Amino acid sequence: MTGMNLNYRQRVWSLTLIMVISLIIFLGIGLNLIKATLVDSSKREIQSVLAFAVHNANVFVEKAERGDMPRQEAEIQVVKLLSNMQHEHAYVWANDSDAIARVHIRPEKIGVFQSSYLRHITALSDEDIIFREATNLKPFSNKKIFKINGITRLPDWNWVIGYGVYLDDINTLLWKYMKTYTLTVFLICTLIWAGCFYLLQNKKQ
Fold it and tell me: What's the gap between Cα 163 and its chain centre?
């Protein structure tokens, strides 16, 4: 009888251990999948914003090319257009063909030479859009946050235009989804464990 009880306890502990390990594995896999999905979603958002920016900026570029508007006035309109594409800490930035910042959420950056221009314009010679990951100062805060930047080119003027998503925003969404996912996985594992425990109990009897 003692042997049977010991064997039963061993099975229960084994079942519990398997459930805990399974829970950890499922949570790890789920975390990576959700994060990858959110990063891909952010990249699609970046592509959409940049496509919209280039499409609308090209209206003024074409007017200047046709002679319907002076180049200087067209540049003013493009700067105004891109400067208005800001929401909280999300913003579009642009550097002109002289590597001078023309649009940025931080006023002190405007008019300043940007050494990154040559690197970006060279990479864009073979691609319509490139993605770069870096640590940037988040607007309206003194914190440097990891950021995914999408960068494209305004073809006729050779301006470089960028837009990015901060990783802490992604992490906020990740935590939101993860809480629901964790609860779901926990409930499923608990139900499986309860079912197996019930079967072991019946078998013991």
Answer: 11
